[in-house]
Amino acid sequence: MPQLLPRRNSLHTVRLFLIVALLLTGRVPPRAQETPNRNAPVVKKVEPPNWWVGLTPDLMVLVSGKNLQATHANCNLPEITVSRTESSVSGDYLFLWLKLGPELKSGTAICRFTTAKGQASFELPIATRKQILGRNMGLSPDDVIYLILPDRFANGDPTNDEPAEFPGSHDRAKARAYHGGDLRGITAHLPYLKALGVTTIWLTPIVKNGAAEDYHGYGAVDLYSVDPHLGTLLDYQELVEAAHKQHLKVFFDAVPNHVGPRHPWVTDPPAPDWFHGTAEHHLNAGSPLKGDFYGQASKNQNDHDLFESLVDPHAPAQRRRNLTDGWFAGTLPDMNTENPLVVRYLIQNSIWWAEASGLDGYRVDTFPYVPRAFWGEWHRELRRIYPRLSTIGEVFHPDPTVTSFFVGGRKGWDGIDTQLTTVFDYPLYFALRDVLLNGAPAGRIANVLRQDSLYPHPDYLAPFFASHDVARFAGMAGASPEKLRLAFGLTLTLRGIPELYYGDEIGMTGGEDPDNRRDFPGGWIEDERNAFTREGRTPGQQQIFEYVQALLRLRQAHGALRGGKLWHLASDDSSYIFLRESEEEQLVVAFHRGPSPKTVTISLLDTTAKGAAAITLLFGPARADLAGEKLRLALPAESLSIFTLE
Ligand SMILES: [Ca+2]
Ligand SMILES: [Ca+2]
Questions:
Q1: Order of strands across the sheet with 623-627?
Q2: Distance (Å, rounded) from C-alpha 52 to C-alpha 56?
Q3: Ligand 1 center to residue 154 CA distance, Å?
Q4: Is the whole-model pTM more than 0.85?
Q5: Which of 9, 99, 124, 389 is 20 to 30 A from 152, comparing alpha carbons?
Q6: Which residues contact 116 (CB under 8 A, 6 or more apart)?
């Protein structure tokens, strides 16, 4: 944060001296003698708090405080020009547009402004950019993402468990209270993640939140601060740097759609239309459509958000307004991204985090709830500076015609390219859970994959079977250790960049939110067992851990499992068998979810595996014979096996 400089004058100094002298002699001056200028400008906060040389040609600074109706403003560095100012009607906010000249050097700018009632100033440190090598790297198909809720992973600093400004917020016995996990706890356990074999961590939001139950991070009250429960900006910078040193990437959870209900903007917005609506009068982000509008079965309509109207060129724009302009869950203040001030604020905020930390990409929350024009602009500005930065959107929907619409790389019917790198593969998530837990045909997997034609880059999709928003896989009715292994097996061998949810690798269980966000055992010094270590894991935990670790090693060793082409070989009610093919190798993955063994015979004649002479087991319990072009697979019950063809 910049140091804020109150207006000083000699009279003020004399008065201060007098007060100190009187206090020292034990006498308090009578109140009537004080004549403070109640209308003088007061600076409380400056956003962004600092900036960098050569990053952008201009900068919009948002100053918060009192009596900020500036008539004139300037900064003391010759390369910084204040081109325009705009105060809010309340005087609580002042926007300043700065032009940053090409000869600007690092240093601290002191910007002063004058109002009818006085003068105030603030500091804006301008730093040289760090060496960019190894920062802001983005994803590749070689990556595997590991999702962490920082409050629930590991407590690396017990002194921040209950920050002074949040009394009573910490209680490990309460599912919705803060539990004490933090950024330093994650840094300390990077070697564990490295040993497991993931390459990228995605942390749920780390920005400052405001309520006693905001341990998840989705209730922002300050988009430029790290939540004090989780640590400091320095802790985050050190985490990213430590991760990069260990060749791990870091994804930041960005939430441009909304802030938390306790954000100071809610009662005192910087502009009348800063939000869509007000706390008293706003739309709800629920879709006005019913499940049967498009003739769909309505039984599962509460499992996901109804985004159909957003992708439908025939739906009147008014039908989409609830989704894009409504307050999420009816309570989260919805940013008005049609207001250029809001757009500029949010873009600069994302640039600031990328530059301040070196993060490698953004996971983007509630992606469809923000109008698409914003995404195009947000991405354009970010990519101009960070061409490799990746973004993954959350589009919580089972239908690929819906999820694919939001991916960038081409324009939609609305003429907009969102430029979003990719989305989480929710359609595959729904299929995997249905196939493994609800008895749906294994062919559902092939049915999702055939719709990869809708995506410009399906190899960048992020398949997953669990996240912080759904019940733990192991906690679902019908789940078993065998089925959990199958879920990992498919997620790590199908195309794309898999996402795994913390703790599933040791079979953590739990129901819906917040029960799906239990503490990782061993992340707290007082924990009885430390499942971060082999000795601390139960035999059951060790078994699933080793299974996931082995799959991740296999993925690392075989390029075909990462970026290889995927070909269907066979698909039916209980099994799905596919080929992963690179220039170097051909692998057969055989999945069988049935309760008894099964033999499958496949002709390789009409496949790219035609001519293979031998088949060797790499992973799993199945057996295979290759006779001529006939591949015969003996698949044990509930198994996934991987073979190499030669
Ligand atoms: Ca802590
Ligand atoms: Ca919105």
A1: 598-603, 630-635, 623-627
A2: 8
A3: 8
A4: yes
A5: 389
A6: 69, 71
